[in-house]
Amino acid sequence: MRRFILAAVAGLFLCQHLVSPRAELADTDQPPRVISLDWGLTSTLLALGAAVPAIAEKKSYADWVGDGQAPATAVDLGLRLAPDMERLRELQPDLILITPQFSSIEPRLNLVAKTRSFATFTPDRTPLANATEITRQLGQMLHLDHNAVQLIAQSTAALDALRETATPAQKACEFLMVNFVDDTHVRVFGNGSLYGDVLKAAGIRNAWTRPTNFWGYGTASLNALLRQPEAGLLIVGPVPLDVQRQLQPDRSLGASDTLLDRLPAVQAGRYRVLPAIWSFGGLPEATALAKALMAADLPECDHEKS
Amino acid sequence: MKNPEFSILKVWPLAALGGVLLYLVFGNVSTILGAPISLATIFEAAMVGPMGDSAPALQFSYVYLPQLVISLLCGAGLGFAGAVFQQTLLNPLASPATLGVSSGAQLALTVALLLAPEFHANHAFAIALTGSCLAWGVVALLAGRRLEDPLTLVLTGMIVSFTLAAITTCLFVLKDSYLNSMFIWGAGDLTQNGWNGTAFLLPKLALGAIVVLTLSRQLSLLGLGSDVARSAGVSAGLSRTILLSAAILMSAAITATVGIIAFVGLAAPHIARMMGARCVVPQLLCAAVMGALLLGVADQGLQFALQDLASFLPAGALAGLLGAPLLLYLMMKMSTRRPELDDTPMLRAPVNHGTAIQVRIIAGLGVLLVLCLVIALSVPWSGLDAISVWRLPRVAAALLAGCALGCAGCLAQRLIGNPMASPESMGISAGAITGTIAVMLLLPMAEAAGQTIGALLGSLLVFAAVLYFGRRQSFDPRSLILVGIAITALADALILVFFATGDPRLGEVLALSSGSTYRITFDTLFLPAGISVLGLVLALPTLRWLEILPLGAVTGRSLGLPLASARFLIILATSLLTVAATLLIGPISFVGLAAPHIARALGLRSAVTQFAGSALAGGAVIVFADFIGRQMARPYELPAGLLSILVGAIVFVAVLSFSRLFCPGMIKRQDTSVRQGAAVD
After folding, report:
1. Which residues of chain A are within 8 Å of residue B196 when distances are taken between CB atoms?
2. Each residue of B148-165: pLDDT tens digit?
3. Which among B192, B174, B172 is positioned nearest to B182, based on CA atoms?
4. Which pLDDT does position B554 carry in this prediction?
């Protein structure tokens, strides 16, 4: 009896191994028809030049991630965390791409097609390295290896350029990378965020050392920025309207005396406003951020210490 | 302001809270400035203004001080406005939050942020005021001539408030990336970055307070009933409109500045009254002081306890943690009053049908339910196998949850002879979801079974607490709802605290509490189905007793009812049914309250027929809501729990106005209940 059970278990393992997506996909010549539910993966697929038959929350994707690169023919799948299963099934994908954040709906997705999970954000907090590896794997899977190599080379070049052009005075500076939620709250990007990794790769110092969440950012009140008065401020878009107003140099509409324009970095002009870049994205977003930092011409620090 | 009823004994909460506030302020200021300081230094700093550009000085004069002032101002304004609401409407449960005024402001601001961000940034107050006024207009319109009946008004307010909040949450679900700022704002965060908020808020609050204080004579006469006011030569309609407008203005200004702060507006006037403030002006001022202290202590206490982390934890949500136990304690001290059955007009069936007609009504409801099931399963047609894989488990879950909630609501209302009782309004659903989340967080390895036990324990605990506190008030509808609100506020505060810590399990908890059937498969259906069958089996033999229980304990005992064991069985059955429903569609739904009323309004008055009728009605509402949620914004899924509030509210209002039209007898009774409502205070 015990032998029988053991044999059955071994058989089960073998079967599982045989039908694992990797084994099956490697055999076919045609690139598989792939649908991604995660915006970061979708953006990488588009950058690789792959076919994207469907996007979850298509309109929001265009507003937050894609700059008009998404094909008009792509079908809207509905909410990312609750895609329309019946519509997904009609599209007959060979493979559904997700991240670990989708694991609670994975059993349901498995009924439609095989799913494969790619994690940009992992407990070891290396999103940039993960994004590079994911780009390579996606290229392999979709028979677009050449494009993947090119994409990775572009990203490396942008980071190298940023590192090499930064002056010593810029490198002496510590920066806080923030995104304004409203005029009193910011998300500060630290170690383990995609932005943080880009700074690290370019040799620019990140001033935020306090705890961050799984995605490497912390939500904080504006006054948390007072802890590092000597740090420069990198503001990633989108910037809320009232923050834009408080940052404007000419205050013809009466003096609005707020903490924001009293911040040492703002008073000394040690801040730059960067365009909106999806912070949960992949390699294309990292490249875009490196280019934006190049274009922004980082402020210099003249303080003596450190 | 010499009031003989103000004795030292009753004023102790004020003095104690004041002392705590002072202590916390001293502690916080010395932490910020890095040195022990005296009152004189604080005063000097506040008067002279910015003390230079050093970080501690900026922190003190641009963040700490404005936040302290705004917390006191908002608390005072909410307490004051709440007292005006309660006095004007003769209703101890009235407050901006319970009457839908805050939800109206929130919905208006959310819609404005989505459609016209620039307009939102420039005219937040106008938007909040418009939303508040519209919401109050809808409440007044629906309550109609029964505006002065406390229960009708609060019930209507709850419907409108739930409905508007459900629409807002639907927008959050659909457009979350655009509404990040609304999440922080919605939790009532008091963080300031200068004096703009104070400068904005102060004139509006002052204007409202001046209007109200000028009309204080009219206000005290209105508190005696509109007949008394009229006979004293006061135009009840006009002065009520002006007073309520002033209160709405104040609450809209506060909502626009710092977001939704639950509970303070409801609790502060109660505490003021319980402390013995009887006349109008002392009562208003006492409520204002009490509100300021509640919010001030909550906010300062957070900063004191958590130092840096305080920015993550919104004080508005946490005011509930402080106010709820205080309200419960004071309620236990309050004098008890035996409610009259006539006090609750909705308890009675408007029409007395014979058995044959009742059976036909039930059959009609059954046909309706089957129709809903057929539509939900087959529209749009997509092949048999797709339907059985994708739709069948979801429709089955919706059916199960709806029937279980309908049954639980009917049991709860009959058990304590109270038309406002329901799993949702008594906080039993909140207890179930809190238990589930607690198990999920404390015992990460626990599977569904462990979470179910947590949910059951949570709901039983809340039910026991509600009964313990409610019993002292002889299950008076008003105090029962107050206890329910207090317990729900506690549970909500705990959940919000968890959200604010940014735990990665947030998504799971959100999915649980927003109530979607999306993830349900046949495998996950078994456990809730088993629990609800168990609940049903326990409930069926008690139906006989439920005929007698609403008549009161004395009648029950004299008819030979095994009172203690009957109550225990019914409580257990209600909890089991609630847990099953909560596991399937989450804690937010309106069906447990509405379904028994729908059944009653249709003329099902005996316990057995009402029980069957509310099960069928509840099932139909949630099955239909789930269908709408899948199809309305396809491919975007809206949670069934949220939509069941919308569908339930529409059906409920329709049935109520239908029965009111055809049974004018119900309206005549309002006169008696108004007197009694006034007598409570």
Report:
1. 256, 258
2. 777 678 778 877 888 888
3. B172
4. 76
- Conformation bin of residue B52: beta by default, left when phi > 0, alpha when psi is -120 to 50: left
As beta bridge partners, residue A236 has A274
Residue of B nearest to A229 (CA): B55
Contact residues for B420 (Cβ-Cβ < 8 A; gap 6+): B151, B154, B155, B477, B480, B481, B593
Please answer yes or no on whether A101 and B382 come within 8 Å at the CB atom. Answer: no
Q: What is the Cα–Cα distance from A264 to A233, expressed in whole angstroms?
A: 10
- Global ipTM: 0.81
Chain A / chain B CB contacts < 8 angstroms? 120
Nearest CA-CA distance, residue A197 and chain B, Å: 20
Amino acid occupying residue A16: Q
Residue in chain A lying closest to B199 (CA)? A256
SS3 B279: coil
List chain A residues with CB under 8 Å of B59: 223, 226
**Separation between Cα atoms, residue B300 and residue B309, nearest integer Å:** 13
| Euclidean distance between the first and the last CA atom of chain A, given in angstroms as a whole number | 71
User: Which amino acid is residue B266, in one-letter code?
Assistant: L
DSSP calls for A234-285: EEEEPPPHHHHHHH-S---S----BHHHHSHHHHTT-EEEEEE--TT--HHH
pTM of the model: 0.82
Q: Is A97 helix (H, G, I), strand (E, B) or coil?
A: strand
Contact between residue B93 and residue B152 where contact means Cβ atoms under 8 Å apart: no
Taking an 8 Å cut-off on Cβ atoms, the answer to whether A78 and B193 are in contact is no
pLDDT confidence of A23, banded at 50, 70, 90? very low
CA distance B503 to A213: 7
B58 with A226: Cβ contact below 8 A: yes
C-alpha distances out from residue B49 to B56, B58, B62, B274, Å = 13, 10, 9, 40
